[in-house]
Amino acid sequence: MKPNSFILVNGLLALLTIAGIVSGAENRIIPVGYKACGPAGAECRFECLWDGQEHIAKKWCCSHAGYNTPQVHWGIMDLGNIYPITRIVVVHEGNLTDSKHLITEDYKLFGSAASMEGPWTLIKEFIDNTLPRNEILVPGVQFRYVGIEVSDPQVGAGVNGKQDDWAVRILELYIYSSAAQIAQTTPISPIRPVSTYSPFVKVADVTPVPTITPILSAAPATTTAATATPTPKPAKKLLYFFNPSLSFCKNIAEILEKPAVTKALSNFQMEYIQSGVNDPRYTQHRVYLVPTFLILDEQGKEINRNSSITTEADLLDFLKQ
């Protein structure tokens, strides 16, 4: 190849790369609507996640259940259209020097092409995150709705030697697409319901299957020795999904030892299922949040679930259902 031809070809490649034809340029998608777990201050709204400002005065900062109450934060963004998503970047308020504890420790990202009610696909789960900026590569997926769920908003102990508070603090959330042009629909009005319940774990609308009493045949007349009747096992199963490192799971461990709770649990076959051990039942029962209790009937069909139990009264009330 002649030198001039080499320069010409490389120059053309450079121009194509700048234009995004060779390299596959990304475009940031700005949501057109959203709903989130609760209200926050005028400068700390959920929509600050896509305002282009990585500044502590322009962040998502929510503590809808109070600063000192363990809680789950969540929000769902409507991108306006279904897009091929290539990358998501989450920027936390904390840094690696003087405010490491303000890095979001445990959170999940979800995607859906259908609606704000799902069904949801788990994009990425972060457990014990210590990085102030997370970049997630997600090639080959297409979503219109992207959700975030935060179960632990702080890393380890804070400046007071404990978890300072339960407020989430995220500066920016970037969503990138390989679409050549971002053509969005007309923006919709934000929906901000105040709720402590995460939308990523739904209570199943299932009618319990009635228990059928078996008909026992009469014993033969020649029987002289009485046969001991075995104690029947409870028909219903209780699955408890938990993470022993979370403070509110430790609180539930104490609740499970209460006499009234122990008595109520005798009506169930109970199984403990710890997170982080790749148990297939997390996927089978669509459990993305701990602690979660599931009641199954004798056929294994889900009757009820609850991911917001924090007191003995809550658990006893749930077990009566």
Q: How would you characterize this protein structure?
A:
By secondary structure, the protein is an alpha+beta fold. It folds into two domains: 153 residues, Jelly Rolls (Sandwich), CATH 2.60.120; 84 residues, Glutaredoxin. Helices cover 14% and strands 30% of the residues. Strands 1, 2, 3, 4, 5, 6, 7 and 8 form an eight-stranded antiparallel sheet that branches. Strands 10-9-11-12 form a four-stranded mixed sheet, with no helix packed on it. The longest helix has 17 residues. The protein is globular and about 65 Å long. The protein starts with a helix and ends with a helix.
SSE layout and pairing:
Elements (H helix, E strand, L loop, with lengths): L2 H17 L7 E2 L4 E4 L23 E3 L10 E20 L13 E7 L8 E6 L6 E20 L15 E10 L58 E7 L4 H9 L3 H7 L2 E7 L6 H4 L7 E5 L5 E5 L5 H8 L2
Parallel strand pairs: 9-10
Antiparallel strand pairs: 1-8, 2-4, 3-8, 4-7, 4-8, 5-6, 5-7, 9-11, 11-12
Compact summary:
The chain is α+β, with helices and mostly antiparallel strands.
Mean of residue pLDDT? Answer: 75
Query: How many β-strand runs?
Result: 12
Helix content: 10-25%
Fraction of residues in β-strands: 25-35%
Main sheet attributes: strand count, strand direction, barrel closure = 8 strands, antiparallel
Helix vs. strand class: alpha+beta
Taken from the alpha-carbon principal axes, the silhouette is globular
Intertermini distance: 79 Å
**How do the helices and strands follow one another from N- to C-terminus?**
HEEEEEEEEEHHEHEEH
Instruction: Provide the domain count.
Output: 2
- CATH superfamily membership of the largest domain, which one? Galactose-binding domain-like
- The CATH topology of the largest domain is given as Jelly Rolls
Low-confidence stretches: 1-23, 183-196, 202-226
Number of H- or I-type helical stretches: 5
